[in-house]
Design brief:
The complex is a heterotrimer of chains A (201), B (659) and C (310). Chain A has six helices and no strands. Chain A is mainly alpha-helical. Chain A is elongated. Chain B has a single domain, classed as Cytochrome C Oxidase, Chain A. The chains are: A mainly alpha (201), B mainly alpha (659), C alpha+beta (310).
Chain lengths: 201, 659, 310
């Protein structure tokens, strides 16, 4: 509760409440791992149940998926640069890299939505088969997380503009960073277990 | 969609009509009373917007008692229907709805809030913290839980209750076999409450890890804090599974996907696995904090420290780990093969080992003690033999081959009531009688408490003991009736009579709350039981800032040590410093309402409207993001004033040791 | 003691076949342990609370502070482990044993009966004899019967407590179970897994006949019973309660619901709760097998009496 500030630590760790929030967010990420783990388990149970509908080989366009992957991986890197600039107390650098991160993220979401629209036009909807149900749910959940992250980070950027780099905004930025890297890791699993495995089978 | 306006209200059933009228009258009554007493502002300021863990805890407990009543009425209706063969009190559909809501409400909307409520009130006090780590999130947890509970509860008058059992097995729970709105309520209402629970779990983990008083190492934490901590860890690791399962159910039912359906390649058995992957740990989420409460109560009223504290901690951790590895024992009969069944038989039976350790530790805590039979202690004592029966029948059920004969019979039903009622309900009663003075500054009446105790425990045994024998004679669960030739009638009748006694016990408890609120002696000390842990070191009821000065902890049972060595019991004026506290917020209440509205629209499959309402959720999140309210400081003078009011009266006419 | 006192009465304690007998042996073995544990713990419990209760004459007694006792704690950790092992070994043995035809009847060739559960009835097919019965099953006494269990819709559980334990029946999935009746007799069987409104009445009878009587019955059925047609079979699958029925021929010639790729034979439009009818979401282009059902929706739309209630 108390606002005693320890300036020896990085900005985002300086107050007690900040330390609590960051630990709390780590625990939340633990819950998120289980959430995505369950979705992956569901996908692995259903991934050969096509019910006469299309199969991964019929649908997947590996080129688009590669672009999505590069966009998201790059955004994770730029997000890391943003946190680095924050540690150097460089507000403008932080904002620049953060905005680039979000643009890359938005590009990813745009590509993914296009990909989904393409599949639906091919007649592959959530209702078509158990495999497609689990495919759209797993990827949709990830995509929704990324979209939420973009919205959330936009709020944080506005706050940095308004208030500059304070322990509170630094903590918010740091947590967004954790979240963003986490989504990146999830995507790597999606890329491997959904796309690559689907193409190889 | 397929749902018509004229089907909105359930009509044509006198029981439901009666409830509709009763609900309407009580809502009007409450509104009128609040207006008459001019209490609206007070309600808003003191309760709806509070972020104080103590008030939130009390609201949880209140909601839990209310839900226990609702679930209890469901139970009584079931017992009435099966009291005689071929009864016509409820028809099959109505009976199905009643046992489904009984299960869901008792586990998720009664046991959970009662335990989380007591955790909320007690944990920060026990570890010497000012509040939980995230007070506003704590309020959000409560309002999400409350919103989910209310949404679930209106189902029986608006649209129809879920009717596929509390485990909602697919394919039965899918659109193919259970068309109505009922199971949409199940999927959506539990989801909303579940998010609240998950947030609570995170909150308590961080609170317990980071906010303990100086000197309180992990191995000096009170046992209730330990068990609540482990229960929170289980919440965080098990609830996301249920979140996913319920989301998939929602998608299947409302958006036409094929996760658990028979058509389209869906897999009904996956639901069963996901459900119990959450469902079994859930049992330990409710039972572990209860074990902690018994530990506190038994130690206090034996006047001895807990025997084998370390092995208690290890056994709690062991139970938590094993709880994740036993889910298949809920469906040995699915034909997964003898190897799988053998493995899960063994893991399940292994749970008996740490549980046995705890049993013996409790018995040896009492040994060489001086046991006082207060009402709280009576509950803890009755727990031991009753839970023992639940435990040994549990081991019998764990033996997969034998389970082929017990599965889905009343033997199983009797077993889990013998674990959950002693293990959770007795614990909640013990906890409430024990901590009531800390919460409200007055005791619950001990004489009424003992009447409550005897009626309840006798009623409980008379209700559920016959069900073991009925099960072994082939009576199955969830069957709304049975034939006269089956020969089940006498035992079913005994069981129904027991349920009435049980209900009388609960009624006595409610009367006790009322009586004690009106007539109980307010002049009690902050430590009426001569207890051992920190929550008793501050005033009763605890001031909103909990401790004027957080005590330093040197040993286990910190307050006992302070009393024995006369350390830190007094407070000099110069030790008082300003205290920083969080401000109230209306946002959690708003979020509860908007989640409730979104959920309601989703239940009725008005997808577009639900989407619009969901924008309200986003708005709430944005408001929260820009909320820089940093709380306020309590002045030294105010603290002095508050502390003087209870410390000065110390020793004069104050009643100690009421037990 | 209480439980074993009722031996003569409770169906689980009165086995009529080897499977139920094996399970009962296991139950009795476990009961011995449970009774010993119960008596021991309750004895200790009563002793402790009696001896150490607060009395006026021990008012000033200050209990000693004990942290615990490693030796004692080891003992009450080790003892349950021993008990668990003692229970595990016979459990595993029995679990494996139940999957095989009973040893006592090893010389007899088992007969096969396919069980198909549907809302809310049991359909028994005799592939070797070529007959099909509803809600009753006749078996030769003293001959192991291999039941192959599946469901046309909801998940159910097949249980004949006098003869043995239960197993689930699931659509697009086949489970197996051996049951044998020692002597001729009639036994009650039922569904134990809740499956909706008609669940309570989902019972059937198992009649074990002398082998020669069984043969006679088969012959009689073949001479007198009506032939099972596909149309008739589809109407059996509607959510209804039926009495006993007997047919010549089995539905296995059209569909075995136990096969992964068997079609979906559900009747969502016949279920109705609070004014809402059931449905399956079906994509027009999807090659889903549930299109099988389109044909049957047209024929006789009676039999809906059971569903419209409430």
């Amino acid at each position: 509760m108390s606002a005693n500030v320890n300036t020896a630590l990085p900005l985002e760790y300086q107050t007690e409440q900040n330390r609590l929030n960051i630990l709390g967010f780590w625990v939340f990420l633990g819950a998120e791992i289980i959430l995505f783990g369950t979705l992956f388990a569901v996908y692995s149970v259903l991934n050969a149940r096509f019910a006469g509908g299309p199969t991964p080989k019929d649908l997947f366009e590996i080129k688009d998926v590669m672009i999505e992957t590069i966009l998201l991986l790059t955004s994770s890197f730029t997000c890391g640069l943003a946190i680095y600039e924050m540690r150097r107390n460089n507000k403008n650098g932080l904002l620049l890299w953060l905005i680039i991160t979000l643009l890359l993220g938005a590009g990813f979401v745009f590509m993914e939505v296009n990909e989904f629209i393409h599949y639906v036009h091919e007649g592959a909807t959530m209702q078509t088969s158990a495999w497609l149900s689990s495919f759209f749910t797993l990827l949709g959940t990830h995509g929704l997380h990324v979209s939420m992250g973009i919205g959330w980070a936009t709020m944080v950027i506005i706050q940095i503009f308004q208030r500059g780099l304070t322990p509170v905004t630094a903590r918010k930025t740091f947590i967004i960073g954790l979240y963003w890297h986490f989504l990146d890791v999830v995507w790597i699993f999606i890329f491997t277990f959904v796309y690559l495995q689907g193409m190889v089978r | 969609m397929d749902i018509n306006w004229h089907d909105l209200f359930i009509v044509g059933n006198p029981l439901i009509l009666g409830s509709q009228i009763a609900i309407l009258l009580s809502v009007i009554g409450i509104v009128a009373l609040l207006t008459y007493l001019k209490r609206w502002k007070w309600l808003w300021r003191e309760w709806l917007t509070t972020v104080d863990h103590k008030k939130i805890g009390i609201m949880y407990i209140l909601a839990g008692v209310l839900m226990f009543f609702r679930g209890g009425v469901d139970g009584l209706m079931m017992k009435a229907q099966t009291s005689r063969p071929e009864m016509n009190f409820l028809d099959a559909q109505h009976y199905n709805e009643v046992f489904t809501t009984h299960g869901v409400i008792m586990i998720l909307f009664a046991a959970m809030p009662l335990l989380i409520g007591i955790m909320n009130y007690v944990i920060p006090l026990q570890i010497g913290a000012r509040d939980v780590a995230f007070p506003q999130l704590n309020a959000l947890s409560f309002w999400l839980f409350f919103s989910g509970a209310m949404l679930f509860n209106i189902s029986f008058v608006i649209g129809g209750s879920p009717d596929a059992g509390w485990a909602a097995y697919f394919p039965l729970a899918g659109k193919e076999f259970t068309p109505g709105i009922g199971n949409n309520y199940y999927a959506v209402a539990i989801q909303i409450a579940g998010i609240g629970t998950l947030i609570s779990g995170i909150n308590f983990i961080v609170t317990i890890l980071k906010m303990r008083a100086k000197g309180m190492t992990l191995m000096k934490m009170p046992m209730f804090t330990w068990t609540s901590f482990i229960a929170s860890v289980i919440i965080v690791s098990a609830f996301p599974i249920f979140t996913v399962a319920l989301a998939l159910m929602t998608l299947d039912r409302i958006f036409g996907t094929h996760f658990f359906t028979l058509s389209g390649g869906g897999m009904d058995m996956m639901w069963v696995n996901l459900f119990w992957l959450w469902g079994h740990p859930e049992v330990y989420i409710v039972v572990l904090p209860a074990f902690g409460m018994f530990s506190e109560v038994i130690a206090t009223f034996s006047r001895k420290m807990l025997f084998g504290y370390k092995s208690m901690v290890f056994s709690v951790v062991g139970i938590a780990l094993l709880s994740m590895l036993v889910w298949v024992h809920h469906f040995f009969t699915m034909g997964a093969g003898p190897a799988v069944n053998s493995v899960f038989s063994i893991t399940t039976m292994m749970i008996a080992i740490p549980t046995g350790v705890k049993m013996f530790n409790w018995l040896f805590t009492m040994r060489k003690g001086r046991i006082e039979f207060s009402t709280a202690m009576l509950w803890a004592l009755a727990f031991i033999p009753c839970f023992l029966i639940g435990g040994i029948t549990g081991v019998m059920l764990a033996m997969s081959a034998a389970d082929y004969q017990y599965h889905n019979t009343l033997f199983l039903v009797a077993h889990f009531h013998y674990t959950l009622i002693p293990g959770v309900v007795f614990a909640v009663f013990a906890g409430l009688y024990y901590w009531w003075p800390k919460m409200f500054g007055h005791m619950l009446n001990e004489k009424l408490g003992k009447i409550h105790f005897w009626l309840f425990t006798i009623g409980f045994n008379v209700t559920f003991m016959p069900m073991f024998f009925l099960g072994l004679d082939g009576a199955v669960r969830r069957s709304y009736t049975y034939s006269a030739e089956s020969g089940f009638a006498p035992l079913f009748l005994v069981s129904a009579i027991g349920a009435v006694i049980l209900a009388l016990g609960f009624a006595t408890f409610c009367y006790n709350i009322y009586w004690s609120a009106r007539y109980a002696d307010r002049n009690i000390s902050n430590d009426p039981w001569n207890a051992r842990t920190l929550e008793w070191a501050t005033a009763s009821p605890a001031p909103f800032y909990n401790f004027a000065k957080v005590p330093e902890v040197k040993t286990l049972d910190a307050f006992w040590y302070m009393k024995k060595h006369n350390e830190g019991l007094t407070l000099s004026d110069d030790e008082i410093k300003e205290i920083h506290m969080p401000s109230n917020s209306g946002l959690p209440f708003y979020m509860g309402i908007i989640f409730g509205i979104t959920g309601f629209l989703l239940v009725f499959e008005w997808k577009l409207a639900a989407l619009v309402a969901a924008v309200g959720i986003i708005i709430g999140l944005i408001i929260r993001s820009f909320d820089y309210n940093d709380g306020f400081h309590v002045t030294v003078d105010e603290i002095k004033e508050t502390e003087k009011s209870w410390r000065s009266s110390d020793g004069k006419g104050v009643k100690n040791h009421v037990g | 003691m209480l439980l074993s006192g009722c031996d003569g009465k409770l169906v689980v304690f009165d086995p009529k076949g080897p499977a139920a007998r094996d399970i009962l042996d296991l139950i009795n073995w476990s009961l011995v342990f449970m009774v010993v544990i119960f008596v021991f713990v309750i004895g200790l419990f009563v002793f402790v609370i009696w001896k150490y209760r607060a009395r006026p004459d021990n008012d000033g007694y200050e209990p000693p502070e004990e942290h615990g006792s490693t030796k004692l704690e080891m003992i009450w950790t080790a003892l349950p482990i021993v008990i668990v092992i003692a229970l595990t070994i016979p459990t595993v043995k029995t679990v494996y044993g139940l999957e095989k035809p009973p040893a006592e009847y090893a010389d007899k060739e088992p007969i096969v009966i396919n069980v198909t559960s549907a809302d809310w009835k049991w359909i028994f097919s005799y592939p070797e004899q070529g007959i099909e019965t509803v809600n009753y099953v006749n078996i030769p006494a003293g001959t192991p019967v291999q039941f192959k269990l599946t469901s046309a819709g909801t998940m159910q559980s097949f249980w004949v407590p006098a003869l043995g334990g239960q197993k689930y029946t699931m659509n697009k999935m086949e489970t197996e179970m051996y049951l044998t009746a020692d002597q001729p007799g009639e036994f009650l069987g039922r569904n134990t897994n809740f499956n909706g409104r008609g669940y309570a009445d989902m019972e059937f009878t198992v009649e074990a006949k002398k082998p020669e009587d069984f043969e006679k019955w088969v012959k009689e059925v073949k001479d007198t019973a009506p032939k099972l047609t596909e149309k008739k079979y589809l109407s059996l699958l509607k959510p209804t309660h039926l009495g006993r029925e007997t047919y010549v021929g089995t539905h296995l010639q059209w569909v075995d619901h136990g096969k992964m790729n068997s079609g979906t034979y559900t009747n969502p439009e016949l279920y109705e709760v609070h004014g809402v009818k059931g449905k399956i979401f079906k994509d027009e282009e999807s090659k889903d097998k549930s299109t099988n059902m389109d044909g049957m929706n047209m024929d006789e739309n009676s039999d809906g009496g059971e569903q419209s209630g409430h």
